[in-house]
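wait is this the right file?? whatever heres the structure
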């Protein structure tokens, strides 16, 4: 009976336009990792929005927010597609380790676009780049005060020099409704290894080898983050 119920629930989800999936990070120099993903296929065509959280696995508010969003989004009311990754840094969450992935001691916010011959954070970053970032038109990366932080809510708006992208990301930041916005325009270079949000918000400056699957894509990124 329970098996029948599970099958029924699964069918309902599929027909309702929700697909549950995993980003499968294979084992390498360290352990494998499965990162859960929920994909909502809206009833009408439209852009692809990705919302991710938990690259710092003890910033609970945004992780919980996305878990709630998964249970409340109605594909029938959506135009386009919504990709939700509620918890990237699973070992940080499970082991209650702030800031870093305890497997390789790296921040999972700072190693994009990643690489497959690196540690777990590198491999996860690479696959998130391919399977989430390159699949979306807009991306929101949610953070929050970590275990040792007390923050007021704020967003980043990164001015890239790409006028169309900057306009969209500005609208997204304003729509989020927080009364403090940090305008980031003075960070030089790609900063991929130290500042992942450069990678996510500066498509015009991506290095060779990192190409967009659709040229018109705009990676607007909004964060509730501590830098
Ligand atoms: Zn964070």
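ok assuming it is, sequence goes like this
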């Amino acid at each position: 009976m329970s098996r029948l119920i599970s099958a029924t629930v699964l069918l309902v989800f599929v027909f309702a336009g929700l697909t549950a999936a995993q980003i499968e990070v294979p084992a390498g120099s360290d352990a494998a990792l499965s990162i859960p993903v929920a994909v909502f296929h809206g009833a009408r065509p439209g852009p692809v929005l990705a919302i991710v959280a938990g690259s710092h696995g003890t910033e609970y508010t945004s992780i919980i927010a996305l878990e709630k969003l998964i249970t409340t989004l109605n594909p029938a009311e959506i135009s386009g597609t919504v990709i939700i990754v509620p918890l990237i840094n699973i070992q940080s969450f499970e082991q209650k380790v702030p800031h870093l992935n305890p497997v390789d001691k790296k921040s999972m916010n700072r190693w994009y676009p990643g690489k497959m011959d690196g540690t777990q954070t590198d491999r996860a970053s690479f696959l998130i780049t391919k399977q989430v970032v390159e699949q979306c038109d807009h991306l929101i990366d949610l953070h929050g005060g970590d275990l040792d932080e007390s923050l007021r809510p704020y967003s980043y708006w990164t001015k890239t020099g790409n006028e169309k992208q900057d306009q969209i990301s500005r609208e997204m930041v304003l729509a989020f409704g927080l009364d403090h916005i940090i305008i980031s325009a003075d960070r030089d270079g790609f900063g991929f290894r130290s500042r992942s949000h450069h990678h996510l918000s500066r498509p015009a400056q991506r290095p060779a080898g990192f190409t967009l699957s659709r040229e018109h894509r705009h990676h607007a990124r909004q964060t509730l983050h501590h830098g």
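The chain has a mean pLDDT of 81. so i think its the right one actually
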